[in-house]
Amino acid sequence: MQRPRFLPDNFTLILIAVVTLASLLPARGAVAQGFEWLTTAAVALLFFMHGAKLSRANVVAGLSHWRLHLLVLAFTFALFPLLGVLLKPVFGWFLNPELALGMLFLCVLPATVQSAIAFAGMGRGNVAAAVCSASASSLIGVFLTPLLVSWLIVPGEVAGTSTWDAVLHIMQQLMLPFALGQLMQPVIGNFVKKHAATLRMVDQSSILLVVYTAFSAAVIEGLWTRVPLPMLLVLTVACCVLLALVLWITTMTSRKLGFSKEDEVTIVFCGSKKSLASGVPMAKVLFAAPQVGMMLLPLMIFHQIQLMVCAVLAQRYGERVD
């Protein structure tokens, strides 16, 4: 029997279970410290595997389509942050200050890699360009996201670090393992591709560890007393509005600029996505431990909404008659 489209995917259900576990049994004291060390190692392994998976041949194949890549990067690192800044006063009326900042943090993150490429393929888009754009977004985000956080989020909200300290910290924890993975790609690339399904569990386990650790600290600080159910519903509506705006703008802009339908599919899916896989470890590096859970809540909700909406869009694109 086919799984109903409206149901969350298995990983999202596990993610909800982890948040529930952290709410009921948060890690404290020495246990919390142990989880911190474990998550640091898991995140380094996560980015090492991302580096090892990224095929240089795919990157070269998509590099020639520079107009498309520039447009996708503009949507990811200019349009989204601009919308975040313009909507921040509105978010501030309905959400508490931490969630409003979480919405702004969501807007400065890089695009997804795996799901953007998967949806581009489902929608019969330019897959080679999707690989290049999504990968470039992930790499550039390592440098741009902390800079945008320091410019757009109130000074002092970042965990006691300067902008360049934050960049250096991210370079050490994320970029260095990624670069090592790229260096090892010719040696272990085929192994990684062959065991992609198994190694995907490493990605997901890393995210789940960070989420449990972050939400444990947030729950101890009183997360759920500061986010009642009505505010959670308002946050969901805010994520829906943000995604709808970006999907409309990316679609209309790609058509006005004369891109082919295949390129439009790639622009829409690469330019409208935000990465949970990158956002979770970046939040861990950029913000103080009690803040991380609150900062990640908008991203987790937006992530699920974008998956459900883009799955429907990809199917419609895929069924088109050329």
From TrEMBL:
Gene3D superfamilies cross-referenced by the UniProt entry: 1.20.1530.20
This protein's name: Bile acid:sodium symporter family protein
Residues spanning the membrane: 37-54, 66-87, 99-120, 127-154, 166-184, 205-225, 231-251
UniProt KW DNA damage keyword: no
InterPro entries tied to this protein: Na+/solute_symporter_sf, Put_Na-Bile_cotransptr
Source domain of life: Bacteria
Keyword annotations: Membrane, Transmembrane, Transmembrane helix
